[in-house]
Recover the amino acids of this structure.
């Protein structure tokens, strides 16, 4: 029998309904058909630390399905507030816990969410961000807006000095505010540390917070998730951010306002689905598929130069050796493994200062990438999203299987 914590490529079984949900269905949150919607849904939980582990456990217990995303490995200092094991991926440990409660309810994905194909979220009912990582704000908002699914952000103050948390509900792809509507470019692209739950001070992980605060935030987040997915009371929580203050104590709700000039653009996905994966498609073949899609879009005028932009995966042109300083031209995305330095044998690092946000056919040939598979280039194996453009034509989106 396979390990229930390692189900990332398996089909999730239906959660058993043997009367265990009768009391849940008697609540206002799950009245009418709301619990049926909850049982049929799949949630994407990003980050399964102190918040995500609590949320995932109780979400599974109440009947829904969960995809768990976290590349972190359990350490000794995690065990005081997280049900993980030292040396084991957190996502696998939490998936096993969820599946011990409700077999078939959870799947583990031990990978960075920034390298997960957009197509993996096409049929997700809700994204739950439990990372409080500023670097993930834009990519998760783009996924939420793109597929028109709500995004729930759960966070705790990680300084260890305050018992404060927040729950933020956004739905930018369906006419509501997204979590970036009040953000500037500096808020989103300030390099370095995670932004704590409250205040301006930057702080590096790990998060210093106890389970008591996490249970409060995760509990409120779970209630909001059930309302968003089930439909009962969802209109009362959209465009809302709630501050949970266990020091005072008190709960402070605040309204979010949609900004039509939001830097996220509130852009929706409308892709052409390809019947092939990034693993069996070369860059040259991708240009050919882009040409077909652009021609089918019935734009006027002759089709000239085509360029491709890989969502979240710009082409980095060079690598540098951290040992001897040697620099070489070795194009690929950040996720393509860098080569060993031919001079000193140290694994080189990809340079971020020279990158192509989009690439045309002449550039692909000049860089020696035409016959490279898109997966070897560093795109996600499944569900990668590519935007094809040509002068005088509206862009088209290509989604790998």
């Amino acid at each position: 029998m396979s390990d229930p914590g390692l189900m990332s490529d398996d089909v999730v079984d239906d959660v058993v309904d043997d009367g265990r949900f009768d009391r849940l269905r008697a609540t206002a949150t799950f009245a009418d058909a709301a619990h049926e919607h909850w049982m049929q849904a799949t949630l994407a939980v990003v980050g399964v630390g102190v918040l995500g582990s609590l949320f995932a456990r109780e979400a599974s217990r109440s009947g829904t399905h969960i995809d768990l995303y976290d590349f972190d490995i359990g350490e000794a200092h995690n065990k005081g507030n997280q049900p993980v094991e030292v040396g084991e991926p957190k996502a696998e440990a939490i998936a096993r816990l969820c599946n011990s409660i409700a077999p078939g309810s959870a799947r583990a994905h031990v990978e960075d969410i920034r390298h997960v194909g957009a197509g993996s979220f096409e049929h997700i009912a809700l994204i739950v961000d439990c990372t409080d990582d500023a670097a993930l704000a834009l990519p998760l908002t783009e996924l939420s807006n793109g597929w028109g699914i709500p995004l729930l952000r759960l966070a705790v103050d990680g300084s260890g000095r305050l018992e404060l948390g927040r729950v933020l509900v956004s739905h930018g792809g369906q006419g509501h505010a997204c979590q970036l509507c009040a953000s500037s470019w500096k808020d989103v692209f300030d390099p370095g540390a995670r932004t704590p739950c409250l205040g301006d001070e930057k702080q590096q992980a790990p998060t210093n917070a106890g389970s008591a605060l996490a249970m409060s935030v995760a509990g409120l987040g779970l209630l909001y998730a059930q309302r968003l997915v089930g439909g009962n009371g969802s209109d009362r929580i959209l465009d809302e951010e709630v501050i949970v203050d266990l020091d005072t104590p008190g709960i402070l709700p605040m309204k979010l306002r949609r900004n039509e000039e939001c830097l996220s653009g509130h852009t929706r996905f409308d892709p052409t689905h390809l019947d092939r994966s990034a693993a069996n498609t070369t860059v040259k073949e991708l240009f050919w598929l882009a040409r077909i899609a652009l021609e089918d879009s019935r734009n006027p005028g002759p089709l000239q130069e085509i360029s491709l932009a890989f969502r979240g995966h710009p082409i980095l042109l060079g690598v540098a050796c951290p040992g001897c300083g040697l620099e070489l031209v070795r194009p690929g995305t950040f996720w393509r493994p860098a080569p060993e330095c031919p001079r000193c044998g140290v694994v080189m690092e990809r340079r971020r200062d020279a990158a192509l946000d989009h690439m045309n056919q002449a550039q692909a040939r000049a860089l020696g990438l035409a016959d490279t598979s898109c997966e070897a280039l560093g795109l996600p194996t499944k569900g990668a999203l590519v935007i094809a453009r040509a002068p005088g034509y509206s862009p088209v989106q290509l989604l790998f299987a």
